[in-house]
Amino acid sequence: MVNENQHSASRAHDLFGMLLGLFALFMLITIKWQIDTSGPDPFYKGPMIFPLIILLIMLAGSIPSMWRMIKPLPGSSWYLDGDGIPYRTIAVAVLLAFFPLGLTYLGLEISTWLFLFTGLQIVKQNALPKLIGIPLGITAAIYLVFKLFLDIWFPTPLLFELLME
Amino acid sequence: MLEHFLAGLSATFSLANFAALFFGSIVGIVVGILPGLGPMVGMVVLLPVSFNFSPDVALSLLLGVFCGGYFGGAIPAVLLRTPGVPSSLITSFDGYPLTQKGEAQTALSASLLGSFGGGIISVIILIFLAPVLARVAASFGPPEYFMVAVFGVVLVVMAFRQRLSKALILLGLGFWFSCVGIDGPTLSPRFCFGTLSMQNGLHIVPICLGLFGIGQTLILVEREIMKTKHINLSRSSLDFSKLWRLMKYWRTLARSGIIGTFVGLLPGTGSILASFLSYDAAKKLSREKERFGKGTPEGCIASEAGNNAVPAGTMIPLLTLGIPGDALCAVLLGVFTINGIYPGPLLLVKEPVLINTLYCSMLMINIVSFVMLALWLKPFAMVIRIPGKLLSISIMAISMVGIYAVNARFFDVGVALVMGVLGYILLRLEWPVVTLVMGVVLGAIVENRLRQTLSLSDGNISILFERPICIVLVVLTVLTVVIPLLLDWRRVKMKQKQESNIIIQE
Question: Which residues of B touch A115 (CB under 8 A)?
Answer without folding.
Answer: 393, 396-397, 400
